[in-house]
Amino acid sequence: MTFNVGDKVKNMSDRLGVILHDTGLVSTVDYGRGQEKTSSKYLTLVKAVNVPRYLRETKLTENLSTFIDYLRTPEANCSLYLEARNPDFEQYIRDKYKSVTGEDLMEDFGFNVAPFTANKQGSEGSVRFNPPAEYSDDVRKLLSPDGTGHINRIDFVWLLVREGFRVTR
């Protein structure tokens, strides 16, 4: 079973905790005394958290892991961008970024807040990169309609941030 960040779980010893990260195989859980990694199969969902779309993360799969390894290379020339739909959503995005990275988001350095007048549908995240020779099906599903070096999915940006990438100009 895979869990979302924030889900409340219990382990086989009935210890209650909150999911901090989950790969589908291994979960990082906060039991109130710091982070612990455990096999996801030993956890039971107590209460699912309804995470807003702009704070969700794509689940890490083996194919995505291989693609992320490519994005780390100089050839990929990968850059990340986040945009809050409006000032109401800005603090949530800033807080999540800081909780994952320990760093503050800086406006105009890969982060922007759309004015209310922009009439945006939702907050955005995008990843730009030099395309590899081929894509796995998992990656192809994430690609922007042009099918090249652009993924316009905020949930994928959050996965990359969790994997050590940072928002850049």
What overall geometry do the principal axes of the alpha carbons give?
A: globular
Count of separate structural domains: 2
Largest sheet geometry: 5 strands, antiparallel
Helix content: 10-25%
User: What structural class do helix, strand and pairing data support?
Assistant: alpha+beta
First-last Cα distance: 36 Å
Write the layout of secondary structure elements.
Layout: E1 8-10, E2 16-22, E3 26-30, E4 35-39, E5 44-47, H1 62-71, E6 79-84, H2 87-101, E7 111-113, E8 124-128, H3 137-140, E9 150-151, H4 154-162
Parallel strand pairs: 6-7
Antiparallel strand pairs: 1-2, 1-5, 2-3, 3-4, 6-8, 8-9
Describe, in short, the structure shown.
The protein is an alpha+beta fold and 169 residues long.
Would you write up a description of this structure?
The protein is built from four helices and nine strands; from the N terminus they run βββββαβαββαβα. The protein has 169 residues and is an alpha+beta fold. The protein has two domains: 8-51; 62-162, no CATH class. The longest helix is centred in the middle third of the chain and has 15 residues, at 87-101. The termini are far apart. The model has no long low-confidence stretch (mean pLDDT 87).
